[in-house]
């Protein structure tokens, strides 16, 4: 830059008055009209038409673009480009929920700021700049900027410097405006000191001036650096640009090295002078290398939009991105309109600002140098914002100029643009070309476009939170009953209410539970892609195709359980012992999943409950005795003497004998307690863990499930161990646990599948989509089967219980000749000893396991459990359940 005419020592600083050709007024008017029409057209094409006053926004954008372009004269095309971007940014604000009236108010304020600054800068360009006033004006502006930046501290807003305005709910961050004042003030001081140095007159007076400037500048820059590194970097860069541009360095290599060196030194001083700043810088870098939080959410939303987006409001993931209306506005552009649109808008922003700055090089004087410093800070802000959103560099507290239509971003941008437009020339001299000035930025724009393309082709890893906002497929029973569906507004519907409450729930934008959680990805993206989807993946990631999840649940069994249990508090589980499929999973008195408020967690007692199992736990105790061939012939028949008390049989009855089969059929406490006492805690724990998976999380595929807790993992006294052997003490379980225990016994018997490992209970049968049926992954096995001899003896005792023992009511309720085995149980809980947990677990035809638990205040809970089990067993006998092997016919035609 030729700075020879900047300063005449001891006289004045003035701008060059060299005249350049200007466009005719008619041509200027035509261009302004075209740019105004372009801004209005962009707004009309993109703003949601659901707003009744969308036309007012288009008119405001068109009128603002026209007025600014007409006033900008030589910079009309650059300003028109930036207003076109502002039209897209205004649409984004409305799309994110900002009132149109407030957006229009900001646009009008921006137009006013641009007009005032353009007129003011042109007026100043015609005035002399006395040398002796440069420093004074610079100190006044720098001190004022420090004062205004500290002013919000009185309201407790020192961190962001926010000032709330009583005008349309607007708020401003003072730092965005004081940065402009500070760059101008320190720029004037810099020019004064640089000229003194060039004139060889840098003496005591100049050192005092430098000290005064540092007394104001260091606190301001230190405050910015501590609060946020981004604005501090922009401020330093603007001042450094002015200092370097004012120096007489003509060789471009030296000039660039000087610029890089000065900015590096100042940035390093700021970093090490500010407490904790170095660690924050390292954290920002770590976020880039391993995206998380805001950056991770923004990248996922942009990748999901692909190269070609779906239009305004099409991105469902953008709502998860913090500060999306300011710092991450470019992410909305990519998410809604595609990364190709972001590449276009980002390149246009960089080239327009670069071209606008380069026009200042064709003019000479103080004002162009100050304007160039402001312009460079704005250009650097654009670079940091655009590349930061893509994760190429750290991003902190910086909005994209022109795109972010907020009070703290748009108004400062228009102030700087007005200063640039009022200082720019109509066209360059003959020996300078526009291409030479903008060529480096075109390379930067090209790199940005390539980075956008690479981001578009990167796979999208959807998180659990993303799945809560995307459309989901239906959940159905094996026979076609719709359990869950998605409404037109994206909410989740549960047409059967609480009948299927145990499968889980999904609350849009908040959380998912049970099957809705563990199968969330398959419901959202489990559908197979078509050939066209794979082809379209070249332009954008293949869209998620929802899939309907087909459970193994049977509608008639679920309804039978609900009808028979009624309002009695309890749960019912039915398993197919051959496959482990869950045919029924029901709990009474549960909330409708569709009516759950945010923050509520479904109780899900059938899989997450923890109740004393009582005598049904004797299946585990008996299995341990049979596996170890424990001799029970010495077990007492009436009561078992313990260290501090005695253990009687229920109601003091005497067991007919002390065999394992009789222990199960008549529920003899004395035999079970004798087994636990003589096996010992360690061996009982080993058998329970190895063959029944106690004290470890079940492998259930329908959501989190509570395991059987035995208490055997901690040392127990003899009395405690004996009570554990009969299912009391600290033993807890739920119906899914006890059904799984019973399934292990049934599968291990000679009539079952002794050679095959025992699977976990599973509820997912498969998935249906437009491409047809997809079988679910095989359920992982949890443990080995019991020895068949032990299982046969357990089944023998259970068969006796179902016909002549404690569960004889079940055998009487079924037609003669049906193979039925059962084990009942009763547990007294509560401090009053009168709360009863009634249990019954049965095996029909050595295949179907029906387990019922009823909670009551007296022994009627036992009778209710048997009544419910008998009704479900009869329903199975009348219509044997069929496994889901294909897509069922939806019984109610689906939910719209």
Please tell me about this protein's structure.
The chain contains 31 helices and 21 strands. By secondary structure, it is of the alpha+beta class. Helix 6 (174-198) crosses helix 14, helix 14 (366-389) runs antiparallel to helix 15 (410-423) and helix 23 crosses helix 29. A hairpin with a 2-residue loop joins strand 16 and strand 17 (772-775). The longest helix has 26 residues, at 100-125. The strands form seven sheets. The protein has a six-stranded mixed sheet, with no helix packed on it. Strands 12-11-21-20-19 form a five-stranded antiparallel sheet, sandwiched between helices. Strands 1-2 form a two-stranded antiparallel sheet. Residues 1-21, 249-255, 269-277 and 429-439 have low confidence and may be disordered.
